[in-house]
Please model this.
Amino acid sequence: MSIQTIAVTLPDGTIREVPSGTTPLDIANSISPRLAAASVVARLTPVTETTQEATSHEEEPAEAAMYAAGDSAAPRLVDLATPLTADTKLELVTEKDPEALKVVRHSAAHVLATAVLELFPETKLGHGPATDSGFFYDFYREKPFTPDDLVLIEARMGEVIARDEKFVHDAEPREQALAEFERDGDFMKTHFVTKFTVPGDEVSFYRNGKFMDFCRGPHVPSTGRVKAVKLTALAGAYWLGDEKNPQLQRIHGTAFFSKKDLDAHFARLEELAKRDHRLLGKQLDLFSIQELAGPGLIFWHPKGAMIRKIMEDWMREECLRRGYSLVYTPHVAKVNLWQTSGHEGFYAANMFTPMELDDGNYRMKPMNCPFHILIYKNSPKSYRDLPVRLAELGNVYRYERSGTMHGLLRVRGFTQDDAHIFCMPSQIEDEVVACIDFAESVLTTFGFKEFKVELSTWDPNDRAHYAGSEENWTLAVNGLKHALDRKGIAYKTIPGEAAFYGPKIDVKLVDVLGRLWQLSTVQFDFNLPARFEMEYVGEDGEKHQPVMVHRALFGSVERFFGVLIEHYAGAFPLWLAPVQVGLVPISERHHDYARKVEKELKAAGLRVEIDDRNEKMNGKIRDFANQKTPYILVFGDKEQEASAVSVRTRAKGDQGSMPLADFIAKAKTLVETQSMEL
Ligand SMILES: [Zn+2]
Ligand SMILES: [Zn+2]
Model:
């Protein structure tokens, strides 16, 4: 009998002829033992044509991916111990591959379940997938787990890892597996097997030691490869999300390749928590959300409102400087308007329900666009009037479910720095260049150094889903592309991601922690000008339809403010700080001098607060520092005699004494140049 040989193609193109049954681990070892040790799983891509039908599981993709057979022609991850039996492309997946971490995390979920069953054998198992930030496992146990149990479980997981048990793949006939699960009262496993396999299938299992779980894998070679793991939370959830079902215990955890990565992860979470805009909003008295008024509605307190005023003043001035006209429009309009705009159809679910008045139904506005169109249409336009650029800091209201709000980031009422540009097709490119220029200016002025740009275009093969002619789409997409090229901005094109009414440019800023935030958008629209029968008289004396660009740069003032708070951790640059200078007279006999200093600073346009309480100097300094006040000026007899102040900065502490006039000159320059320095 001859041994069959198969051809394994490696990523560098070399082909290895090996006996059928060779494993990826064998191949890794033959390349280098170090590679074998670094490999987590293997990625196989079949090279032979396959006629086998792919099974599709549309619902619950995470579960389907865990249990169901995938597309047999697509690349798939397998255990390093999987015998290869057909020609294949093979890639050894090491820690550098993002997929590898998911395999480690799912393996950690098995380790968790192993530990739970060893400590609490009566527990029934649900499922335990990897998530974006870690993993969880659902358990059913009559007596809920306690935080103390979690400590025991985590310690036992350490033992399971130390035992370095091999993850062994196994299979048995479906009917046999179902019978065993039913016999043991494993109602969740019975459900998953029934749902994700069909009669005649074999059911796939993984064992480590005495533990066994219904699972398609893949897994790391052994439990010892789960190097750094931590349980993070315990939560209750109803089985299948139905409150008539038993309540499950979901244990969350996370795992990394090393203790160092794990520590870095938790350090980052701590940093995120410290910067949380909801926490800082309270601590610095910037804004609140009032239960009595309802969720998702923002109350701007005096200090937050001061920052907002500066943001809005800057934005309005810039709009005027850049050739926009400022407008104000109502917060509500008759339903008829929303019917004309089409919002009443495709957007109705995002709108507040109608209010019935004596002359018809009205709705809060979810967008400003139709209002600006009405202003445009109020008088006839000729090509000489274009472009018309209408800008408004417009309050809009959108319906979000009551449980889904999140601080300033997800709200029901917010203010868009919204503008609509109505122009001729020939003007598109220049207008878009100007919009991008404006967006860049917003980001750099407010202290962001890095941003990413995406261009969403249509799918020309899917004409049915897009309004507007092919000619218009080509013109608009090219206009956006040329504009980006002219600005020398690198961007990612995302075909098929455009809204049905036109292509768009999204600008995502990168904050100090490297997080991406979607804020500015420049969006084309072929739809609304047609729905509202907008027109202008062209050079040819004929009537034409203008093109329309929606653009928002802060996006939402509320959201942008939330991002600013987190980006600066509440320590705003001098020009934005609600209180720029805190005054600390050392004792009561310096109060008159304090008033004089206050008057001079205010006359110079600076925002000042005196702490003239009968408190110790250090306590007053600490209070200003806790409020992240950029400058703290301290003065006693010596300063008073010399018309000087002793200067402390938020960042660098005591800077020594300087004449008051010098301090004022310095602070004024920093404010005027919107400097990030102190
Ligand atoms: Zn598994
Ligand atoms: Zn709009």
About this structure: The first strand starts at residue 5 and ends at 9. The chain has a mean pLDDT of 92.
